[in-house]
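# nightly structure sweep
# worker-07 picked up a monomer target from the shared queue
# config: single-sequence mode, recycle default, output format = structure tokens
# input follows
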Amino acid sequence: MIKVMIIEDDFKLRTMIAEHLGKWNFEPIMISDFEKIDENVIENTPDIVLLDINLPSFDGFYWCGKIRRVSDVPIIFISSRTENMDIVMAMNMGGDDFIQKPFSLDVLVAKMNAVYRRTNQNHQSDKDIITAGELVLNLSNGIATYQEKEVALTKNEYHILYLLMRKSGQIISRDEIMRALWEDEQFIDDNTLTVNINRLRKKLETIGLADVIVTKKRQGYLLQ
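# output follows
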């Protein structure tokens, strides 16, 4: 169930939104303490935040900035303000969408679904890569990228680089690398590993990464 934090000081509107969201299988979290909103976000870990601009003490712009320091949760501003500058400010402060009062609750739900879906897709894309400095390895296609230059890797090269990047800066023994490849049902002996390491080094050189894989005598390799 998607958790939605409703930060709205109008009790009637807050309750109405919560009741409607409950019908759509959302889990509404109503906030009545407007002095510790960022702490509430940390404590409740919502999937979406609905944030009014006109709030007691500090406005929604202030709280959006505070939330962005502790969370990348999608934030939809809800406000009676109609000035373009308010919308621009909301987006610049880290908001993901803006809906003006009065609004249709069904339109609000549609916007929430769109923002949630878009955010989840972005997070899923993040899971498809691993990085070490400026070196990026795409886990879905085995392509290594550095400063906009890319090179395709073989399956063995991909697995070796993945292990080195996952433990970047640490020495990885030859035995550990061979065990990792063996678990993937790819038998590889000591000589074959040396050949694959050298090929991987040459491919990384073609995209501007010379000597990035360092040999530690009688210990193994590390990615620096």
